[in-house]
Amino acid sequence: QAAAGGGRAALRACGVHNVCRLLSRRAHGFYARDAGVAHRKNLGLLRRIMCQESTKFKNVWTTHSASPIAYERGRIYMDNYQCCITSIAQQPRLIYQKSKCAKSEKIEDALLLECPLGEMLPSPSDYKASLIVLTVQNWLLRLSADSGEVLEKVYLAGSCCKFFRYLSWDTPQEVMIVKSAQNKLPAAARQAGIQQTVLFYLAVFQVLPLSFIGMLEINKKIFGNSVTDVAVSNGILIVMYSMGLVRLYNFKAILEQFMEQPFDLGQEFNWNGQVGVVGKYPFGLPCNIKITDTPPLLFEASSLENAFQIGGYPWHYIITPNKKKHKGVFHICSLKDNALAKNGIQDMKCCSLEPDWIYFHPDMSGRIIHVGPNLIKVLKLKEVKNHADQMEIAEDFTIVANRENCVNNNVTVTASGRVVKKRFTLLDDDPEQETFKIVDYEDELDLLSTVAVTQIGADGRAHLDFHCNEHGILLKSIPLKESWDVTYSHEVYFDKDLVLHIEQKPNRRFSCYVYQMVCDTARDDD
Fold first, then answer.
1. Structural contact between residues 107 and 167, judged by C-beta atoms closer than 8 angstroms
2. In percent, how much of the chain has pLDDT > 90?
């Protein structure tokens, strides 16, 4: 009520009677007492400082490891999450180092959990960031992000399932899904004619405070024999099939319709002849959601390799026609009536080893990013003139790789005048030509970042570029000091004033390079 009263007072004070105008003025910082004004001003200053020509990014720390390296919100995790290093300090420093864990305690997956704003939580530890991890022995643990201390532990697997492997968000920072590996019978059991009908188990949790919603099975008898994978996102159950079919169901409705009995963590229960405590060893969690009939189908589409995305405004989806010859061709269609948008077929006609890729822009603008070896196209949906019910795909801006010095003539003439024809042409992603490898979006600074790589002799050289998210203008280019081998796996994180590059080499060798923003001086040529 106080906030509403303050909003009305602000409206009266400035004579604004339109909510949209008020929100627009707030976004531009018109009201000095607004909670987000100082933060927005600071981020705006940081963006301007970072994009100055005199500002450099310096490689301040490098490490190597025989185990995977992960990065989450200013923290670098090593040694299977037993070692945590902060990257926020001027130079990365150790936060905690736990003793080496046994193979039975190996962590399979992890999610960072952050405190929701404006909510009362039962425990003081809930207000600090924590890490939800899933172990190989089916324990779900909540660890303190500052010390690694175990804050909560839940045993997942009762008699129904013994192989939970994946963590994901249904609703980010609110509802979490724990998914099992696909159930497969041993060869001897299959030869004996034993049928396996349950393919996956999904356990659903509300987080902060951590609470059990329910567990359900994905069964062949309900969803069909050709199911290959399932996922849950934004209240939608996504079921994928071997023939490229993708089907969507209302996940919330499934939970409500087929819930047999709700259970709380720590509650004693007697379930199907078993007596135990929910979330405690050895009973784990009951499978209390039994889907007995096929749920109402919301939507289905057929796409090559099950590639399917929804986004934009009004809602559209992106698929690739379900034939191998159409690989690299993307259709953008209306979710309302499946109508193909005008100019909705996007095809870069790339001749490359790695395919181009397309996705809805994560800035919630409804735009689409299409990335090829030497071209990034940012597309937008807009109404067709004089046809308000039809949408078309228009180009917002493009970013082009620097290939000015690249000469690719199929016909050359020697000094003697002899004409020589090449029997092959260079691929669009040939290592000797500058090629886009990564495109990302930094939401707090509203910058589009790209990584482009060129192979120079035995070494590959990469640079990270920052572009204006609204117009695509190049604002800053940062050369990465380390060599970039295009045959290795790479991840690059751009997080405000930090750039972090994680590289995976053959034989499970990992490297991490950390760059920090520094002000250039006359005596510092880094």
1. no
2. 65
